[in-house]
Write a structure and sequence with these properties.
The complex is a heterodimer of chains A (about 120) and B (about 120). Chain A is mainly β. Chain A contains no helices and twelve strands. Chain A is globular, with a radius of gyration of 14 Å. Chain B is built from no helices and eleven strands. The interface between A and B is medium-sized, with 27 and 28 residues.
């Protein structure tokens, strides 16, 4: 079945460091790809998305590029801030097949940014 | 509209008791999802409603679980004869449509602890 594999955490960085969180997927077909973020005490929020190969999603300084050849969607940020400390989830869905089109999530990566 | 609302936020129950959770989606959203998230894992899909119709259920949804969305607005998730393995965060999400750009909005979840 479909699955998402994320880089295991936790990840601890100093402020202004470069961030990469790896995400690869296994799926039959061409899913839409997402990064969700969960700040402490809050619900999951969509961070960015990409719906087809070579698309780049970006938001709040974060970027991820849909790489069909490597089935990857790695999350990057050039300079992290303390406020980026959260759990990051990579996810996929198939918007054009089936009725539910539910999200399949990775296990999450805890990021802590130190001042 | 303040987003997806879930009630209660926390529930502690004794093994064998029944529990019911409520989800109020964003008002114009016709799609509603329930997910379960255990510690250190990403959310896993449980079930999906389009308006009042429950159109898909995961294998995770045993016969002790039942979900309803009687008027196509709020939804309830009931767990009968709770077991310790039911301890988890139960998340509700809602969305419009189901195309590749559709964003699912999540509630803050109900954390269930079965003792």
């Amino acid at each position: 079945g479909d699955s998402v594999t994320q880089m295991e955490g936790p990840v601890t960085l100093s402020e202004e460091a470069f961030l990469t969180i790896n995400c690869t997927y296994t799926a039959t077909g061409y899913p839409s790809l997402f990064w969700y973020v969960q700040y402490p005490g809050e619900g999951l929020q969509l961070l960015l998305k990409a719906t087809k190969a070579d698309d780049k999603g970006s938001n709040k300084g974060f970027e991820a590029t849909y790489r069909k050849e490597t089935t990857s969607f790695h999350l990057e940020k050039g300079s992290v801030q303390v406020s980026d400390s959260a759990v990051y989830f990579c996810a996929l869905s198939f918007p054009f097949s089936g009725s539910a089109r539910q999200l399949t999530f990775g296990s999450g990566t805890q990021l802590t940014v130190l001042p | 509209d303040t987003g997806v609302s879930q009630d209660p936020r926390h529930k502690i129950t004794k093994r064998g008791q029944n529990v019911t959770f409520r989800c109020d989606p964003i008002s114009e959203h016709n799609r509603l999802y329930w997910y379960r998230q255990t510690l250190g894992q990403g959310p896993e899909f449980l079930t999906y409603f389009q308006n009042e119709a429950q159109l898909e259920k995961s294998r995770l949804l045993s016969d002790r679980f039942s979900a309803e969305r009687p008027k196509g607005s709020f939804s309830t998730l009931e767990i009968q004869r709770t077991e310790q393995g039911d301890s988890a965060m139960y998340l509700c999400a809602s969305s419009t449509g189901g195309g590749p750009d559709t964003e699912a909005f999540f509630g803050q979840g109900t954390r269930l602890t079965v003792v």
